[in-house]
Amino acid sequence: MFSRWTGLSSKAPVTRQVSSPVSPTSSHMDRKFLFNRGDKPYARPLEETVLDKKKKITYDPVDRCHEVLRRIYPINKSGGKQIIIGCDPLEDYNPVILLKKPGTRGVKLQHEASVRFIDCFEKFTEFFKADADPQNKILRLTDSATVEFGYHYNKKAIFVRVDGSEPNGQLLIMNCYTWQFMRTIMPLIVHTFGLLSKYSAELKKMSDVMKVHLATHFKLSDPQEVGRAEQYLSEMKTDDINFEPDEKGEALSTLDYYACFCEIKRFCIHSLTSQ
Fold first, then answer.
1. With contact defined as beta carbons under 8 Å apart, do 73 and 97 qualify?
2. Which helix (H) or strand (E) holds 109?
3. Which of 58, 88, 242, 263 lies at a C-alpha separation of 20 to 30 Å from 139?
4. Phi, psi angle pair for 72, to nearest 5°
5. Residue of 263, 258, 274 whose CA lies nearest to 234
């Protein structure tokens, strides 16, 4: 009677081999294992520790120095590409040009290459206006900086390239639309570059005074003393150094010396504490 309503036989129960249910996350874990396995060329080694990472950290002077009195201008309508003009402490505070996209390292031209790049504005304009391709498709600004004339997505473009430690160097592509927008601010770029060129001697003078002041109070050849000097530099005030501005230059009347002092001690720590 019991077996009739339950559907169970009164005979001895038969055991069946039932496979264990598959976990819904097993396939996901398998894919995750395949993605994180260490035999791929770009995977991080499993045996790498925190100490190994610290050993790989190297402080490049280029990364620890920052241009002073930077001026940032967009060179396309969306603002996705910028031209930055500033006085570089690694170039004796001479102005340099940096072409970049926000959030990237960009292409940094040295002072000599920057001057050459500005002088070649008309050549770039002729390239975009001409129907035929130029005979020389590579314009060398310096030994490490070049401008190549070519095409990008079937549109004329110039490729600003700087050889460096990266595999393909530093590269920025400027198509005809970017250059057409950049032409509208060319007078501003030339004016800013020329004005910062007049400021470079005064910035170099202020930097030398600050460096001599640090050298008299700290032994910069000792790494521990360098750390103390950097801490002292962050707390330094204008009254601590003997700096006399040059009042003869007409362009120097528009120079904000206090802003220069703050930017030099903030962005040029490596150049001030290095031997």
1. no
2. strand 107-109
3. 88
4. -115, 125
5. 263
161 touches 89 (CB < 8 A): no
The rounded distance, in Å, linking the Cα atoms of 63 and 83 is 18
- The CA radius of gyration of the chain, in Å to the nearest whole number, is 31
Element (H, E) at 94: strand 94-100
pLDDT in tens, the chain (275 residues): 434 434 444 455 555 555 555 455 455 555 444 444 444 444 444 444 444 544 444 444 444 568 899 999 999 888 889 999 999 988 899 999 999 888 888 899 999 999 999 999 999 999 998 887 777 788 899 988 999 999 888 889 999 998 864 555 688 889 999 999 999 999 999 999 999 999 999 999 999 999 888 888 888 888 888 888 888 888 888 888 888 887 776 667 788 888 999 888 888 777 777 75
Tokens found for residue 26: 């097993």
By DSSP bridging, strand 145-152 and strand 138-140 are antiparallel
What does the alpha-carbon distance between residue 41 and residue 258 come to, in Å, rounded to a whole number?
50
Judge whether 172 and 99 are in contact, CB under 8 Å: yes
Contact predicate 264/68, CB 8 Å: yes
Q: Half-sphere exposure of 26 toward its Cβ, with a 13 Å CA cutoff?
A: 5
Residue 52 to residue 27: CA distance in whole angstroms: 34
Amino acid at 141: L
Q: How far out from the chain centre does Cα 242 lie?
A: 34
